[in-house]
Amino acid sequence: MKIEEIVKSKTFKAIISIIGFLIIVLIIFKLGMFVGFKKASFSCRFMEHYISNFVMSQNNSHNLMTELNEKNSLKSHGTFGIIINILINNNGDYKLIIKEKREPEKIVLIKSNTIIEKMKENINPTDLNINDFVVVIGEGNENGQIEASLIRVLPQPPFQPFSQPPKPSEFLEKSFR
């Protein structure tokens, strides 16, 4: 048989199609492994540096580690919550400590290229306040911190989102007074 006849045969085309399909499946599998590894390594680094980031005792961090499981693993790509502290180092770099409802506090680093928006205007890190509600989008670093690329300050809700919602009668009384 000649090579041209082999290339034109249905068997050859079927084998090439199967090999191509397997290569695509393996690429998708490898991409899933990469994303899972990145998420797991951020959670691991976060726990390794939790004590140094938040100056807590070893016992508290152990209790926190036992509470985490696969269902509520840490998200390395961003956070949503309340600013509970704003730290400025000697270089003028800002760090925000954000408290989420069901996750431990996270440290967010503000870089020089971080975009900070409130409504539709850009603001400076100096305009951020404790108790501001923020959404942070960024990338996890090797110290278990989030390097922010975008911070959006949200308007204050009528009640505290991380506590029990007010009873309907309490909410109506407060809003119409």
From the structure above, extract its key features.
single chain, about 180 residues, alpha+beta, 5-stranded mixed barrel, 5 helices, 6 strands
Question: Would you mind describing this structure in some detail?
Answer:
The protein is built from 5 helices and 6 strands, in the order ααααββββββα. The chain has helices at 3-8, 10-48, 50-54, 58-67, 168-175, and strands at 78-88, 94-99, 106-118, 121-122, 133-140, 146-154. The chain is elongated and about 80 Å long.
Helix content: 25-40%
Low confidence ranges = 55-72, 168-177
What structural class do the secondary elements suggest?
Answer: alpha+beta
Number of strands: 6
Can you list the strand order of the major beta sheet?
Answer: 1-2-3-6-5
Q: What's the N-to-C terminus distance?
A: 92 Å
Radius of gyration: 24 Å
Strand content: 25-35%
Instruction: Report the biggest beta sheet as strand number plus sense, adding barrel if it closes.
Output: 5 strands, mixed, barrel
- In round numbers, the mean pLDDT is 77
Helix tally equals 5
Question: How do the SSEs run, as a string of H and E?
Answer: HHHHEEEEEEH
Query: What overall form do the CA principal axes indicate?
Result: elongated
